[in-house]
């Protein structure tokens, strides 16, 4: 645990100390990594007839194909395009090694109580949780690391079920936070204004997969599989197309905005 906090502090000091050396340069959004959450032995959350890993993959692939069709200059990379298990650190490593300009992770939400009252979309960025509800979402998504071999060693003792482990994220300083929030806001705006979804807003919490990336990154909860009506929508081909198109428009607008200020 001490190693985790020490590592986080070093990263924070490095980022804070690097601001004075930043140079103005041309910025292009040419490479996007699309991450379908869960997969393989990790089903994610489940509804009455579907699994998160399957819905996330279908929407991720739809999003990637839409970007390829309408933005020919953008390279689309998937962390997975089949039903396979991939660790959180490996997902981030794909983006880091490819020098991605954006990382978009697709997930589905779930609750235990008030299932039919909980619905809508949320887009998350890396940060310290501000409520127990936010912490619970992060704990659920981070719990996948317990399925990974040598997870304690790989994640330096981080325990996704222990709230004390999340002290690490109080030390986190991210030079990409502003752009991450910008993209997240655009996604939720598109969901509301163009797709007709109920937006639960842009939120922050300690997601390991976002913490490991070195570029603007978001995690999109596209809806609740535990809500019967939403589960049907999320498994409907047209519903998936609408969701993917909303994320695509946000990505396109973000890309245009970033590149226009060069």
Characterization of the model:
The protein is 44% helix and 15% strand. By secondary structure, it is an alpha/beta fold. It has a single domain (31-152, 175-260), classed as Zn-dependent exopeptidases (Aminopeptidase), CATH 3.40.630.40. Strand 1, helix 2 (52-70) and strand 2 form a beta-alpha-beta unit. Helix 2 (52-70) crosses helix 9 and helix 6 packs across helix 9. It is globular and about 45 Å long.
Cα separation of the termini = 42 Å
- Find the CATH topology: Aminopeptidase
Number of DSSP-assigned strands: 6
Described by strand count, sense and barrel closure, the largest sheet is: 6 strands, mixed
Rounded average pLDDT: 89
Annotated CATH architecture? 3-Layer(aba) Sandwich
Pattern of helices and strands: HEHEHEEHHHEHEHH
List keywords for this structure.
262 residues; Aminopeptidase; six-stranded mixed sheet; 6 strands
Brief sketch in words of this structure:
The protein is of the alpha/beta class and 262 residues long.
Secondary-structure map:
Layout lengths: L1 H17 L12 E6 L15 H19 L4 E4 L9 H10 L4 E8 L11 E6 L5 H11 L8 H4 L22 H17 L5 E7 L2 H4 L5 E8 L3 H8 L1 H24 L2
Parallel strand pairs: 1-2, 1-3, 3-6, 4-5
Antiparallel strand pairs: 4-6
């Amino acid at each position: 645990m001490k190693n985790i906090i020490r590592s986080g502090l070093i990263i924070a000091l490095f980022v804070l100390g690097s601001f004075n050396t930043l140079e103005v340069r041309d910025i292009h959004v040419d490479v996007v990594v699309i991450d379908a959450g869960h997969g393989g032995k990790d089903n994610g959350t489940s509804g009455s007839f579907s699994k998160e890993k399957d819905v996330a993959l279908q929407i991720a692939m739809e999003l990637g194909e839409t970007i390829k069709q309408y933005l020919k200059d953008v390279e689309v990379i998937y962390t997975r395009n089949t039903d396979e298990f991939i660790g959180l650190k490996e997902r981030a490593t794909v983006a880091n090694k490819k020098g991605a300009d954006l990382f978009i992770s697709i997930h589905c939400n779930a609750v235990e109580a008030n299932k039919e009252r909980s619905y809508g979309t949320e887009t998350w960025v890396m940060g310290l949780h501000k409520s127990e509800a936010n912490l619970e979402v992060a704990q659920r998504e981070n719990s996948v690391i317990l399925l990974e071999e040598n997870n304690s060693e790989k994640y330096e003792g981080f325990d996704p079920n222990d709230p004390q482990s999340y002290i690490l994220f109080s030390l986190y300083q991210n030079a990409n936070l502003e752009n991450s929030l910008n993209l997240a806001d655009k996604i939720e705006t598109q969901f509301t204004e163009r797709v007709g979804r109920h937006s639960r807003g842009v939120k922050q919490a300690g997601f390991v997969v976002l913490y490991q990336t070195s570029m603007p990154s978001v995690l999109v909860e596209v809806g609740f599989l535990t809500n019967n009506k939403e589960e049907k929508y999320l498994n409907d081909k047209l519903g998936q197309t609408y969701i993917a198109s909303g994320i695509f428009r946000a990505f396109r607008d973000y890309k245009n905005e970033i590149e226009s200020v060069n």
